[in-house]
Write a structure and sequence with these properties.
Length: 443
C-alpha cells in the first residue's frame, strides 16, 4: 500500500492499495486531483486494479459530503457483474457446452450497436424508474431474484423527467443486450474453495458450473453521463482536470444527475436480468440457474460511514459491506455481501465476501485492471496467437469482432490472482472461491 501525503491543492491523503505503482503514474495524478475536490472526506483510494480513466482513475473510490461528480461514476453507469449457480458439475455438461454457448449467442444480442426489441416510452419509463421488478413482472425471471441484487435491483430517486430524449432513443432498443468492449457472458467451473462454510451459504461447491454476466447501461448510461457533464462544466473553472466536473449534491442540478444516474443504474440491473432470462432458457434442458448476487462497479451512492452521510463514488470498484449490514439479504447477513471479481477471458475469476475491517468506504477491487491500452494491444498482439492460447486452455470463444478479441486478450490485463491476494490481505474482502472460464461470449 502506498500513501501520497496531502500536498499542493490536495485536501486529504491518497492511498494506492497495491504493491506496484510502476505502470500507473497517470492514474496516480488523477487520484491526486480527486483528493483536491471540495468536500472530500477522509482520503482518496485506488484499488489494486487501478488504471487511467475519465476523470477518476478506474479503481478509484472517494466520498464527498457536498458534491457529486459524473467522472467519479463513469460513462457506463452501473457496469456490473452478476453470478448464477447451477446444480450440476462439469462432467454432467461438458459435452454440451458448445451447444449451450451457441444457443446463448443466438438469444442475446452482442457487439457494438447491438439492439433488441424496442421498448415504447411508457414501459421504458417504468423500467428505468423501478428497475428489475418491472421486467420480472414481464416474465423475465422470478421474484426471488430481487433478494440477491444490490438494492433489490431498484435505486431511488429515479425519474424519467431527468433523462434527455436522446438518452431514451439510445436506450430503448438496448435492454437485454450485451454490448462490446470488456462485456462478456462466461460459463465457468468452480476449481477451488477457500472457505467451505461461506461457500455453503452461497451454494458453491467444487466442479460446479456457474455463469457470469458482465455488462452495464449501454449507450443509455453513456448519454446520461454526456448530458450532465456538459451541464456541469461551468460550475468550477479552477478544477485541476476539467473531466472532474461536479455539482453540489443538494442543488437542483446535483439531484437531477443523481436521479438520471439512478435511472441508468436501474436500466443496467434490468439489462442483466433480461440477459439472465435468456441464459436460463439456454440451460433449461440441463440445470436450473439461481442468482448468487448482482453488484454494481460504477456508481455513486449515499451511505453512512463513520457516522457521516456521504456520497461514495465507486469508479471500477465494488461495494463490499461486511456482515450484519441492513442492506444485505437475510441469507447473507452472517457472511457479508458477496463480491464478484472477474478476471480476463483466459484466467480466473473470484467470489469473495465483504468484511467489517474494510477502511476504504466498504469498497474493493472490481477486476484485473488493464496494463495495455486498446491501441497498444492491437499493435502488439496477433489474433492467431490469442486464439491459440485460449484453445490450448480448452476455452470456447464466441465473438463478432476479432478486434475485440485482441483488445480483451488475457495479456492486456494484470494478474487477477495478485489483485485478489492484495484485497484479501488488506481485509477489503475475503476470498471464498475461484472460478475458471470454460466458454466465453464477447461483443
Amino acid at each position: 500500500m502506498y500513501k501520497i501525503k496531502k500536498t499542493g491543492n490536495m485536501k486529504v491523503d491518497a492511498y494506492i492499495l497495491t504493491d506496484d505503482i510502476s505502470s500507473v503514474s497517470e492514474a496516480i495524478e488523477q487520484l491526486k486531483n480527486v483528493a483536491s475536490l471540495p468536500s472530500i472526506v477522509k482520503a482518496a483510494y485506488a484499488m489494486p486494479d487501478i488504471h487511467w480513466g475519465y476523470g477518476f482513475p478506474i479503481g478509484g473510490v472517494a466520498a464527498f459530503s457536498e458534491i457529486i461528480s459524473p467522472g467519479g461514476v463513469g460513462f457506463d453507469i452501473n457496469c456490473g457483474v452478476r453470478l448464477l449457480k447451477s446444480n450440476i458439475i462439469y462432467d454432467e455438461i461438458s459435452k454440451h457446452l458448445e451447444k449451450i454457448i451457441e444457443e446463448i449467442y443466438k438469444l442475446v444480442p452482442v457487439g457494438l450497436g447491438s439492439t433488441s426489441k424496442k421498448f415504447e416510452k411508457k414501459l421504458f419509463k417504468k423500467i428505468i424508474e423501478n428497475g428489475v421488478k418491472e421486467v420480472i413482472e414481464m416474465g423475465y425471471g422470478k421474484n426471488e431474484d430481487l433478494l440477491f441484487i444490490e438494492d433489490n435491483g431498484t435505486i431511488h430517486p429515479a425519474s424519467m423527467e431527468d433523462i434527455s430524449e436522446l438518452a431514451y432513443k439510445r436506450g430503448r432498443e438496448e435492454l437485454g443486450t450485451l454490448g462490446s468492449g470488456n462485456h462478456f457472458i462466461e460459463i465457468q467451473k468452480v476449481v477451488e474453495i477457500y472457505d467451505k462454510e461461506i461457500a455453503n451459504t452461497l451454494g458453491l461447491f467444487e466442479n460446479q458450473i456457474t455463469v457470469m454476466i458482465h455488462t452495464g447501461s449501454r449507450g443509455f448510461g453513456h448519454q446520461v453521463a454526456t448530458d450532465y457533464i456538459k451541464l456541469m462544466r461551468n460550475i468550477d473553472k479552477n478544477l485541476p482536470d476539467k473531466q472532474l466536473v461536479y455539482a453540489p449534491f443538494y442543488s437542483k442540478l446535483g439531484q437531477k444527475y443523481f436521479s438520471a444516474m439512478n435511472c441508468a443504474a436501474n436500466f443496467a440491473f434490468a439489462n442483466r436480468q433480461i440477459i439472465t432470462h435468456y441464459i436460463r432458457k439456454a440451460f433449461s434442458n440441463f440445470s436450473r440457474l439461481d442468482l448468487i448476487y448482482d453488484v454494481a462497479h460504477n456508481i455513486a451512492k449515499v451511505e453512512i460511514h463513520d457516522n457521516q452521510k456521504v456520497v461514495v463514488h465507486r469508479k471500477g470498484a465494488t461495494r463490499a459491506f461486511g456482515p450484519n449490514q441492513k442492506e444485505l439479504p437475510e441469507k447473507y447477513k452472517k457472511i457479508g455481501q458477496p463480491v464478484i471479481i472477474p478476471g480476463d477471458m483466459g484466467t480466473s475469476s473470484y467470489v469473495l465476501v465483504g468484511t467489517n475491517k474494510n477502511f476504504a468506504f466498504s469498497s474493493t477491487a472490481h477486476g484485473a485492471g488493464r496494463v495495455l491500452g486498446r491501441r497498444q494491444a492491437l499493435k502488439n498482439l496477433k489474433i492467431n496467437e490469442v486464439l491459440s492460447n485460449l484453445e490450448k486452455k480448452g476455452i470456447i470463444l464466441k465473438s463478432k469482432s476479432k478486434k475485440i478479441i485482441i483488445e480483451e486478450a488475457p495479456e492486456v490485463y494484470k494478474n487477477i490472482d495478485k489483485v485478489v491476494e492484495i484485497v484479501d490481505k488488506l481485509k477489503l474482502s475475503k476470498k471464498v472461491a475461484k472460478l475458471i472460464p470454460l466458454g466465453v461470449i464477447k461483443g
